[in-house]
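Ticket 4471: requesting a sanity check on a complex prediction with magnesium ion. Repro inputs:
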Amino acid sequence: MIEIKGVSKAYAGSRHKAVDNLSWIVPDGAITGFIGPNGAGKSTSIHMMTGSLEPDAGSILLNGVDIVKDPIEAKRQFGFVPDVPDVFLNLKAIEYLNFMADLYAVPTAERSRFLGEVPARLEIADVLDNQIAALSHGMRQKVIIMGALIHRPPIWILDEPMAGLDPKSAFELKKMMREHAASGRSVLFSTHVLEVAEKLCDQICVINHGRQLYLGTLEQLKARHPGMSLEDIFLAITEGGTGDATGDAR
Ligand SMILES: Nc1ncnc2c1ncn2[C@@H]1O[C@H](COP(=O)(O)OP(=O)(O)O)[C@@H](O)[C@H]1O
Ligand SMILES: [Mg+2]
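Returned structure tokens:
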């Protein structure tokens, strides 16, 4: 579970808040979609959840642990897939995965089990000996996803994880997200692509200009706008400014 309480952030030199008083709960046992157009404030929010940016106001608890007050313990709670998969380019994929497993002290047997299963699911087993720099964007993305999950974190936080993935890998990743949520843990992912959210999310949080415009289920949102396509609803909420809705799933 992630508890986000009154979180705001303005970047230095900006007159506008990139994130403005965000408050919501990412529950266990569910997939939560964090939805908004480019520049809405999704990545800024996520970076505050993962401790790489400190909020100007508010607090964030990951399974009850405050990311600012107890960052090491809080960071044990989640695996994070950033939006840009260009890290450790000089390492071979397998070296990166072992490095991540070392960081989180993953026992050898568990590591082998993971490496025997997940790379095959994501169709990347045969490139593990390649340098990350030599991999395509989608392949890099898969390596980063595996690095984030190798320590079997209870909370998954993924920033635009489907971007650059081929359909088969996107399908497998969605399946893994569902399995993780079904095991009682939390999955939070951001997207600006509505279709991705539609079939996947148990709950959505829509933001634009840093402000939370809707929190609830997609079904509730659709029910409030009868006869409108999801795209039209989305445009109506995000362009309407103030937002008209909070669902019942708060
Ligand atoms: N490092 C930064 N410095 C200054 N402004 C930033 C920085 N990162 C993002 N922003 C601004 O903050 C706002 C939210 O950006 P971001 O959180 O990246 O949105 P999203 O992930 O939803 O596309 C945008 O107006 C963006 O230009
Ligand atoms: Mg982003």
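Notes from triage: The chain has two domains: 1-77+154-250, 85-153. Leaving this open until the requester confirms.
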